[in-house]
Model the fold of this input.
Amino acid sequence: MASLPRLTIRSSLAATASVRPSTLRLQNFAKFGTRSVYGQATEYLQMNDLDLTESQRTVREAIAKICQKFPDEYWKKLDDNGTFSLDLHSALAKDGWLGICMPAQYGGAELGISEATIMMQTLSESGGGLTAASSVHMNIFGLEPVVKFGTQEQKDRWLPPLIAGKERACFGVTEPDTGLDTLKLKSLATKDPRSDSYTLRGSKIWTSTAQTAEKILILVRTTPLEEVKKSTEGLSLFYTDLDRSAVEITEIKKLGRAAVDSNMLMFDGWKVPKADLIGEEGNGFKMIMQGMNAERLLLGGEAIGLGFAGLRRAANYASERQVFGRPIGKNQGIQHPLAESWMKLESARLLLYQGAKL
Ligand SMILES: Cc1cc2nc3c(=O)[nH]c(=O)nc-3n(C[C@H](O)[C@H](O)[C@H](O)COP(=O)(O)OP(=O)(O)OC[C@H]3O[C@@H](n4cnc5c(N)ncnc54)[C@H](O)[C@@H]3O)c2cc1C
Done:
C-alpha cells in the first residue's frame, strides 16, 4: 500500500488527484483479496460506505487494513494492563496518516476534515474503540492552530516530527475549576523581562496522554480575567516541551479507556521560551477554536464508530446464540432494537458527514 502523503488530493471536494485513490483501492484489494482475507475483521467496510467519495473510501479501507493487525485481543490486553498503544501510533505514522490534514510540505497529506473524520470512525469501528482513537486523536487536528497561525520557523520545527510520529503531543486546556467555560481559565503565564521566556503557574486536569507525550499545546492566561476588557482576550497559546522537571504529572485512575492515561498537571515556575508562543499574545482563544471546532467532528466519528462496532457484535451474537433450538435473532423482540439502533447510528453518521463536508 502506497503511503498516504504521496496522494495529492487537496480535499474531499477537490476533483483532481495525481494518483487516483480508486487505483490505490483496487491495487489493495487485488493484492489481498476480498472477504476471504479481510474476513470478520473488516466486515464493517461494506456496512455503510455507499455514499463515500473515492478518497474517503480509500482512507476507510487503508485504515481498516492497518487495524487488522490490532484485533480485539490486542485491545483487551492493553486495557487490562493500562498500556498506551505505541504500536498503533507507529503503524499510522509509518504510512503518513498522522498528517492526514497537514500541509504536504511538512509530510502531511492535505486531505480534508471529512477524510479525517472517517479515519477516526474506522479506527474506533475496527474494535479499537476510543482507546485506539484517543491514542492518535490529538495528532490529527490538534495542531491546526500551529498550521494556521504559527511562523514558518515554528511549523518547520514542530510539524515534521509530529507527522513522522517522532514526537507526541497532549492538549492542556481544562482546569480543575474550568471545563466548558474555557474563558474562566486561571493558569497564568508571566513574561520575564530579563529573558526571552514566560513563567507558567497553575494546573490542568484530564490531560490525556501526558504520561508519555513529549509536547503540549497549552492555553493559559497572559492577562488575568479581571484585567481584560472582553473575556475572550488575554488567553495565549503555547506549543512547548512538556518539561517533566517543572511539571508534576499525576495520573488519574478511572473506569474505562484505561490504556489512554488521564492526568493532573501542576506547575509553578515552568519556564517556556517566547519562541513557543503561537501567534499574538492574548489571542489564544480564537486560535484554539480552529482546532476545537473540527475536533467535534472527529469525536463524532469516534463515537459513531464505537456504536457500529457494538451493533455489529450484537447482531453477530443474535445470529450465533441458540435458545429454544434457534438463534435468538429470529425473534422480532431482538431484531427491532437492533434495527432501531442501526437507523439512529446511520442518521447520526449522515448528519456528521454533512457537517464535515460543510
Ligand atoms: C477521559 C477524558 C479525557 C479528557 N482529555 C482532555 C485533554 O486531553 N485535554 C483537556 O484539556 N481536557 C480534556 N478533558 C476534559 C474535557 O474537555 C472536559 O471534561 C469538558 O470540557 C467538560 O468540562 P467539565 O467536565 O469540567 O464539565 P463542566 O464544564 O463542569 O460541565 C458539567 C456539566 O454541565 C453541563 N453544562 C454546563 N453548562 C451548561 C449550560 N449552560 N447549559 C446546560 N448544561 C450545561 C455540561 O454539559 C456538563 O454535562 C478530558 C475529559 C475526560 C473525561
Notes: The beta strands are 169-172, 188-192, 197-208, 215-221, 235-241, 247-251, 262-273, 277-278, 322-323, 326-327. The first strand starts at residue 169 and ends at 172. Confidence is low (pLDDT under 50) at residues 1-40. Residues 170-174, 179-181, 206-208, 257, 262 surround flavin-adenine dinucleotide (CB under 6 Å).
